[in-house]
Every structure is written in C-alpha cells, then in structure tokens.
What we know:
4-stranded antiparallel sheet, alpha+beta, Dipeptide-binding Protein, domain 1, 15 helices, Dipeptide-binding Protein, domain 3, single chain, D-Maltodextrin-Binding Protein, domain 2, 7-stranded mixed sheet, 3 domains
Amino acid sequence: MPTSPSRTPRALLAAALFATALLAAPLQAQTLRWAAQNDILTLDPHSQNHATTSAILMHAYEGLVRYGAQYQVEPALATQWTFTNPTTLRFQLRKGVKFHDGTPFTADDVVFSFNRIRQPQGTMQIYVTGVNEVRKVDDHTVDMILAAPNPTLLRNLVDFRIMSRTWAEKNNTARVQDYKAKEENFASRNVMGTGPYRILSWQPEQRIMMARHEGWWDKPTSNVQQVVYTPIKAEATRVAALLAGDVDMLTDVPVQDLERLSKDKRLKVVNGPEVRTIFLAPDMGSPELRHASVKGRNPFADKRVRQALSLAIDRVAIQRSIMRGQSLPAALIVAPGVNGWSKELDTPAKPDLARAQALLKEAGYPDGFEVRLNCPNNRYVNDEKICQAVVAMWARIGVKAQLASENMATFIQKVQNFDSSLYLLGWGVANYDAQYSLQSLVRTRTSGADGNFNFSRVSDPALDRLIDAMKSDTNEARRNGLLRDALVRVRDETLLIPLHHQIRPWVMKAGVTTVHRSDDRPEARFTSVR
C-alpha cells in the first residue's frame, strides 16, 4: 500500500516548508504554480538535451519555427522560408523583435547561435543535424546551407534556440557550458531570449521564477503573468503540496495516487501518452567493463548476453505493479506517435528465464556476473523502483546488478563521462521522427550530431548505413522503410533494452486549463488560471 501523507511527518514538514517558501514569493492571481519531480540542469540553451531543461527554457528562448497546439510547425522568429535550391533554405526573419534587454534581433544572432550550438561539449547538435552553414544575407535574411536534402529539418529547428550575440559576447559566454566537466558560465545561470516569458531567477532544487515579457512580438493567448516552477523529489510531498493548494499543476504524478486524485472534485486529470521510451543501455564498446566482475573482456559485446538480460525482464509485471497501468511494454526504442513506430513491431518477447540462462551459458557465463547499474531517482516515473525490479529479475539468472541510484544532475554527468557500464535512460522524441532517436542513441559516435547521446558505445556499420540513408531521403515510402529496418535491427540485435513507453497524466486545480503535451513540455502560453 502507498504511504499516505498523513502518516509521514517528514513529508508534512517538507510540504510546510515548501508552502512557506511559496507564500514568500510575490504571487498574484494570474500565477501558475507548477511542480514536478526534477530540476533543470542548466540555463544554457545549447548545453543539455534534457526535456525538463528544454521545457523551461522554451518559455524564454525561441527558434526560427515552433510547434502549434497540434504540433504543426509554424513561424516564430522566421516569418517564412523558401528553397532557393535543393540544399539552400532561405529564412526571412521577423522584424521588430527585441531580446528581453531591448537589443534588436537580427541575422547575426542566428549565425552566432548556429555556430554556438554545434560546439562539441554540448549535446544539442542533433537539432541542426545536416546543416553545414548558416549564412547572413542581410539583417533579416539568412540562408541555411544543407549537406543534402533534409526531410526532418523544420521539426529539428524547433529546438534550435536563438541567443543574443551581443549579450553573449558582452558576458564572455560565447562558449557553450561543458556540463559534464561541472563547468559554469554566465549563460548557465542567466538568460537572454526573445520569448513570451523572462526567467528571473533559478535557485537549484528550489524554484524557478518567470514573468511575462510584455514586449513579446506575438499576441498573448494566456492570462498567466508569472510562473513558479518547483522541483519536488519526494512523491508524498508533491501530492501534499497539490492537495494543500500550494501548487496549481503537477506533471509528475505518483501513479499510486492517481486514482485518489482523480476523485477529488477540486482537481482534474489531463491524461495522455508521452513520446518517451524508458530503456537500459549496456556498454557494448569498451574492451573491459569499468564496473563489473568480468575482467579482460566485455560480456555486453556478446549479443547473447544482451538478449539474456532482456528475456529476464517481465515488462508486464513492471507495468502492473510499479507503473499501475501507466506504461506500455516496449520492444522498440520509439513510442506510439513517433513516425516509424509500428504496433506490429512493438511487441516485446515474454520473459523466459530458462532461455536467458541458456544464452548466458552459451556466452561463457554459466554463473552470471556482477555489474553496476546506474539509475536516476528523480527523473522518470518510478525510475528507481523500475531499476530495483530489474535488479531482482536479473538475480534469477545469476546476473548480480549493484544498483547506484542518484539525482539526475549527477547521474547524467557520469553517463556523459562514460563512467557507467550499464544505465537506465528515458528518451523523448522532440521532432516526432524515429531518426532523432536512432541518430542520437545508436549511430556510431562522431564529433557532430551522430551518436551525440550514444554513451553506451554502440557501433554497428549496417545500422549506420540505414541511419545515414534516411537523413537525406525525401521519398516518404522509401524513408519509412529505412526507419523500419533500423528499428528492427536495434530490436533484434538488442543494442538497447527497451522497457516501456511512458503514459503521462497531469493533475491540476479545476481552474487551470492547459493543453496536454506528449513531449511532456507544458507551455504557459497554452495555459490559463482562474
């Protein structure tokens, strides 16, 4: 049985302290108080490809294009675009736009931001993949020079955020923050965008304050004047804050509390799928695992070992007991709603312990082995509990996984420094196309966008050829065939071990109206409070 907040004095104390902190803030009637379980990683828009970070920063930083309410690409800082030849796309920039400090937005800012986002210490290069150069034509026109025709270009550019060149150079922050090296820069703590909200302050693990930018170029469609975002790791504390009226919207809802909250007439549930897949990533490329009992070789380099780990996992049991039905067991690394996904392909094998043990024996590990499993404990729905369940399931075939769970901020630094032999990650598909996942997670790593989140050292030449071909193929049917073949290869070679696709309910006060986003990025411009 889940623990009730009324029976957890520490949770009540934490909720009381949280409420006191909120009351100390300058809250008004049109303030949206939004809470979730994890904090952002940085304020630098070109540093970390992390959904919560992007969800906050998209309020302040804008791209040339953006998504509308139904995920259609629409103009933002660019008003129109035309191909002058098959590999040159000309953007007409919006005139009269100013950054939050009053500096005019021009083509120089676009060129500067393009060169900045491509710096190798960041993880955002995927959003300009296939773009060789951005060239200034005049103050309000740029040409985007492509390596080849690019079928996902506009959807990628939604997350290419434009920063003020003048501000960045003035504050010595032209260089992207190196997060994995625990580096700070001016942009990692300060913001200068053109968006509908100004980020006023960030107190890590405590609060982010935003206020409407009255000089925004677009017409506001929301009555939200201020946004207070509060990361609350403890499940009971998050729910207590919502029930006490101290927050208006909760987007990380403990699944065990969902039924109870849905019956509270003061609240309403807005539910929907999320295009995010939770998976395990074994280090396939190291000659020897850094954190394992096996020496002189890498068990994960053997397909049979990876298959054994997958066959030992009971995904339906995780769905039933841990996720309380709020997940879809997965065989593919992309979720429903992503171009390339197919129900026919996305049927995971049933657990088979006998077969798993036989595969381990064939691979030369009849007694199993020990390995460390790195897991975040405040990022995905029940992430630590999922890892605990997997550890128990693997123990039945002799694989002894030592669980190392920690805050997402330090977990992801270890992953990006290749200091993990096996880790759990969730991957949302920002552009709703499977190439985004394939290119980021399983393409052989290069200095550019290819494999920029491939921290498990996958390198499969046949898969690389499929991914490289889909990047420039504008024939829809042929390209969809490439997506299918690549997804099937990842599945059948067990290059990653998918667990499930998340379902993402949000709970809010009855007076809050918002648009549920399957990328799990609530937007204040689509929200009203009464």
